[in-house]
Amino acid sequence: MNESGDIVTDLAVVVDLFNAYAILLLVAGGFCLWALNWGIQKVSGSLMDKVPARRFLILQITTLIGFLIYTLGTGALIVGVLNPPREFILAAAGSIAVALGFALKDVAASLVAGLLLLFDRPFQVGDRISFGDTYGEIVAIGLRAVRVQTLDDNLVTIPNARFITDVVASGNAGELDMMVVTDFHVSVQADLEQVRGIIEEVIVTSRYAYLKKPVTFAIEEVEIGNALAVRFRSKAYVLDVRYEKAFQSDVVLRVTALFRDQEIPRPRILRD
């Protein structure tokens, strides 16, 4: 009899908490949190346009602020509007934790992983990353997933939990500039110093090149189509990761044209 009475009492407490006025305040408060975050996103977008050199820092701060708005704001809204008894908060928190642990274990894992990503920072918003078969720029680090904009303009959503166990490579690690690697192949009969000079001149005169960091080369003999060739692997920095492919295309087009004009021999494929 006492158990039945406790259940009825608990239900009465819940009903009293979620009256029409409280529900209206919760909805209004939730809308205010969304509007506040939306406004911050708009302001950060304007700041990034005015101060492009600080784009990554602005994105990182905006992501952290959005996280705090939704987590702390939601908690404060529930406690402030509903003002539930302390015993009810403890009981509800325990029950919710157990239910979520079984029903939403994958989502919970992603939420915990999202917190680890924000504090451990293996990568940041704005970084170019390689994760499995996905390569692109991180545009958002959310509570549940990371969103990556690929070079084909596809938006890929990856659960946070996958980044805790799998390997991810960051191309620029929070910096605006990034190394771009480009390969060129020439015949073993080519004048290698001339080839190197052509490639280096094209790189340093590109409008996308970041010249505060060095241009380096790795030169080695390789086999292409049963024929021996020399590979020039240029390593240069682009001034902004957004110009990665534009930089690479500019270099390849101009180097190829100069090779043709100066009659630099290219590898000849030997057929069986």
From TrEMBL:
<feature type="transmembrane region" description="Helical">
    <location>
        <begin position="20"/>
        <end position="40"/>
    </location>
</feature>
<keyword id="KW-1133">Transmembrane helix</keyword>
<keyword id="KW-1003">Cell membrane</keyword>
<comment type="similarity">
    <text>Belongs to the MscS (TC 1.A.23) family.</text>
</comment>
<feature type="transmembrane region" description="Helical">
    <location>
        <begin position="61"/>
        <end position="82"/>
    </location>
</feature>
<dbReference type="Pfam" id="PF00924">
    <property type="entry name" value="MS_channel_2nd"/>
</dbReference>
<feature type="domain" description="Mechanosensitive ion channel MscS">
    <location>
        <begin position="106"/>
        <end position="168"/>
    </location>
</feature>
<keyword id="KW-0997">Cell inner membrane</keyword>
<keyword id="KW-0472">Membrane</keyword>
<comment type="function">
    <text>Mechanosensitive channel that participates in the regulation of osmotic pressure changes within the cell, opening in response to stretch forces in the membrane lipid bilayer, without the need for other proteins. Contributes to normal resistance to hypoosmotic shock. Forms an ion channel of 1.0 nanosiemens conductance with a slight preference for anions.</text>
</comment>
<dbReference type="InterPro" id="IPR010920">
    <property type="entry name" value="LSM_dom_sf"/>
</dbReference>
<keyword id="KW-0813">Transport</keyword>
<dbReference type="InterPro" id="IPR006685">
    <property type="entry name" value="MscS_channel_2nd"/>
</dbReference>
<protein>
    <recommendedName>
        <fullName>Small-conductance mechanosensitive channel</fullName>
    </recommendedName>
</protein>
<keyword id="KW-0407">Ion channel</keyword>
<dbReference type="InterPro" id="IPR045275">
    <property type="entry name" value="MscS_archaea/bacteria_type"/>
</dbReference>
<dbReference type="InterPro" id="IPR023408">
    <property type="entry name" value="MscS_beta-dom_sf"/>
</dbReference>
<keyword id="KW-0812">Transmembrane</keyword>
<keyword id="KW-0406">Ion transport</keyword>
<comment type="subunit">
    <text>Homoheptamer.</text>
</comment>
<feature type="transmembrane region" description="Helical">
    <location>
        <begin position="88"/>
        <end position="119"/>
    </location>
</feature>
